[in-house]
Design brief:
10 helices, two-stranded antiparallel sheet, 9 strands, 39% helix, alpha/beta, globular, binds NADP nicotinamide-adenine-dinucleotide phosphate, TIM Barrel, 282 residues
């Protein structure tokens, strides 16, 4: 089973995303049961955000982790517009209330902010860490150079993780970010790790390659894709899944080790542009 180090914690390298859970008109009980099932099979890192379904996703997560808070590595995010001196602590407190807990394991700035200086957010995060409300500080959607600048601003307290889009159709994180994370003891959280595969169609050379490898290991193409991502360095992938067959397939990736030849075939079938991630501030 593959693990990743986040700060001092050792966490299974496949977690669970929850974007779109908790939205109006959906079956929140089924969503919470899915997340709980995922935890029970070993996917103990849960990713949510105050922005998801206006807090609805955090409420679903609270249901899923009731009574088992200490078995879970809980990640949530402050929206960039709420990350300033006067609003940060209120956002965090509201997230804690919705999550029905008194601490989060990892708290991320969801996107670089157009309006709030990063120094302000990092100072507020440092105070929240000091007060025991967040165990680790992290960022999301920060390219390598900006992550490095943020670490310089923060000083001694480490930025434990950067959450970015990383999937076979977007391998930009491999260019500089994952090597940087490996050198500096940081974790990369891969978001949207499977979703763009569906649109490619059976005749896409990448899908054919994944299907061939999947067949030889008797797993699904998505399991192979996830195993590739978490085999690329200090990476934890956070697929969102409600269907149990999907959760089982995601769990299988923790035990699938791809050969060097299989990894090379995947890389050839999903070529990378060789650029870093773009900088986008919201
Ligand atoms: N930091 C950010 O800016 C940011 C941005 C986007 C996402 N995220 C986080 O990353 C998480 C994952 O990203 P995402 O939700 O965009 O996309 P994703 O996890 O790549 O794709 C989700 C979709 O894939 C399906 N699925 C999951 N596992 C599967 C499998 N093994 N086989 C086939 N289909 C499978 C799900 O179906 P079912 O639900 O029907 O099972 C769902 O339709 C989010 O939920 C969120 O927590 C963060």
């Amino acid at each position: 089973m593959q693990y990743i180090q986040i700060g001092d914690d050792r966490v299974p390298a496949i977690g669970q995303g929850t974007w779109k859970m908790g939205a109006e008109g959906q079956d929140h009980r089924a969503e919470a049961e899915a997340v709980r099932y995922g935890i029970d099979v070993g996917l103990t890192l849960i990713d949510t955000a105050e922005a998801y379904a206006q807090g609805g996703s955090e409420r679903v997560v609270a249901q899923a982790i009731k009574g088992i808070r200490d078995r879970v590595f809980l990640v949530t995010k402050v929206a960039p517009s709420n990350a300033g001196r006067d609003t940060f602590r209120h956002s965090l407190t509201e997230s804690l209330k919705r999550l029905e807990t008194d601490y989060v394991d990892l708290y991320l700035l969801h996107w670089p902010s157009k309006t709030v200086p990063l120094e302000e957010t990092l100072a507020a995060m440092t105070l929240a860490h000091r007060d025991g409300l967040i165990r680790y500080i992290g960022l999301s959607n920060f390219p390598t150079e900006h992550l490095d600048e943020a670490q310089t601003l923060l000083g001694d307290l480490p930025i434990a993780a950067d959450q970015v889009e990383y999937q076979l159709t977007n391998r930009r994180a491999e260019t500089a970010l994952i090597p940087y994370a490996a050198r500096h003891g940081k974790a990369i959280m891969a978001y949207s790790p499977v979703k763009d595969l569906f649109d490619l169609g059976e005749n896409h050379p990448g899908i054919k390659t994944l299907n061939n490898i999947a067949e030889s290991h008797r797993v699904s193409a998505e399991t192979v894709a996830l195993a590739y991502l978490i085999g690329s360095g200090p990476v934890v992938a956070i697929p969102k899944a409600v269907q149990r067959a999907h959760i089982d397939a995601n769990r299988q990736a923790l035990d699938l080790e791809l050969s060097a030849d299989e990894r090379r075939a995947i890389q050839e079938a999903f070529p990378s542009p060789g650029e870093d991630l773009p900088f986008v501030a919201l």
